Amino acid sequence: MNNTIFTFNHHSPKYKQIYEKLKLYIEQGDILANEQLPSIRQLAESLHVSRNTTLMAYEQLVAEGYIRGEGRKGYFANELEPGIFQEPYVPYKKRQTETMNPPKVNFRGDAVDQPQFPMKIWRRISNQVLTLQDTFQYGDPFGEEALREQIANYLFESRGVKTNANAIIIGSSTQQILVYLGHILRDEFQSVIVEDPGYDGAREAFQFHRFRLEPLPVHETGANLSQLEQMQSRLIYVTPSHQSPIGVSMSIGQRQFLIQWVNMRNGYIIEDDYDSAFRYTQKPFPALASIDSTRVIYLGNFSKSFLPGIRLSYMVLPEPVLNMYKKRFRNFESSTSLISQLTMAKFMELGEWNRHIKRMRLVYKKKMQHLVSQLRKQFGPSISIIGEQSGLYVLIKIHLNQSEEWLIERAANNGVKVYPTSIYHIKKIYEDPMIKLGFSHLSLDEIERGVELLKSAWVY
């Protein structure tokens, strides 16, 4: 195998680039079935990387079935089904030309409606917090008690989760929390089940600790939980209230099945309660942690529903994990702003958080309905809309016999920025491409204008 084909970039970890390159060669047949790969040491030396880097790449390929290890003999390529990989699956990569001219309409999915943000109230509370003497200290390493108490109250009232301030840990983001949590769980677990497609940031956090990933297929009707019986892992990461990215919610039957499964396995569910606050047809479903708090690690954040720049997330830990976490990280400083924590605590105590969520649910519902209406008006049967019942974005499956990359590039050339979904997939996609359209920060006029520009870009 020629090492000159490897050219590293600075956009992703080196082990991931090695993994993707070897995967591509196996799919294309450049590496033949049963062909022996270089040893971990040989590949590391030829690429001028650490052995750990090549080991991580090989472990991921083994986990996905592309290669196998045969003891002291080394690693060999597995035989793939003929005809499956007719063309290499390459997730959409951002092109340099996209940044040359700012888009007229940006369908970004993780922004907020700035005019609706309660800036005056937030600034007033923040100014009050700055007068407190404790504001200039380091703070509690696990999060300020005042905020943890408010979160405990909120979770009970809105999600049915019975917990207390002591069981809550404050962090800066979901991904950062998962990195810390992975450090604890790695002592007992070697692998984790993840949704496919699913949140790529979570996968990166698990791979940071070299967990073996077992992909659980998720379709527009939900996760295929029947496959859990054939999987080896006792740890699973899911987004049951608003699956990322498809947007489907787990039914109560699926939730009960998952709870029974995890108790039989004596494992843990990591429940990322993604976008649960914004459901437009019914009330939010009860959290998994409200059914069984002993086997569910609950994750939540304020970024998607309030303000991304505030960098506040949290998790609720079962007692055994909580004790290990506090023992392991008791000498670490908090990773989040003390001022932001205290401001949010007061904001919630005064009832402003609940008022904000109720107000924004109505605002976003109107925007969602307008976006869906415009898409159907402009595209008709040439697209399918997925996830219109909740969340701050929709997915559109486009039946135009075009690739994801072509659709994104054509949109960019017409002044519209849209987003790929291939980045959420572990395995190759063969169906019509899906594009992600966020709407939370756009006005109704901008939404309408953006859809019109997409129509002129894609249909002619």
In percent terms, what proportion of residues is strand? 5-15%
| CATH evolutionary superfamily of the largest domain | Type I PLP-dependent aspartate aminotransferase-like (Major domain)
CATH class of the largest domain: Alpha Beta
Largest sheet: 8 strands, mixed
**Helix content bin:** 25-40%
- Strand runs, count: 16
Q: What is the helix/strand order?
A: HHHEEEHHEHEHEEEHEHEEHHHEEHEEEH
The figure for the number of domains is: 3
The CATH topology of the largest domain: Aspartate Aminotransferase, domain 2
CATH architecture of the largest domain, please? Answer: 3-Layer(aba) Sandwich
Q: What's the shape?
A: globular
> Spans of 5+ residues with little confidence (pLDDT < 50)?
83-90, 94-100
Count of DSSP-assigned helices: 14
Based on helices, strands and strand pairing, what is the structural class? alpha/beta
Q: What does this entry look like structurally?
A:
It is built from 14 helices and 16 strands. With 460 residues, the chain is an alpha/beta fold. It has three domains: 66 residues, Arc Repressor Mutant, subunit A (Orthogonal Bundle), CATH 1.10.10; 119 residues, Alpha-Beta Complex (Aspartate Aminotransferase, domain 1), CATH 3.90.1150; 218 residues, Aspartate Aminotransferase, domain 2 (3-Layer(aba) Sandwich), CATH 3.40.640.10. Strands 4-11-10-9-8-5-6-7 form an eight-stranded mixed sheet. Strands 12-13-16-15 form a four-stranded antiparallel sheet, covered by helices on one side. α4 crosses α11. The protein is globular. About 3% of the residues have low confidence.
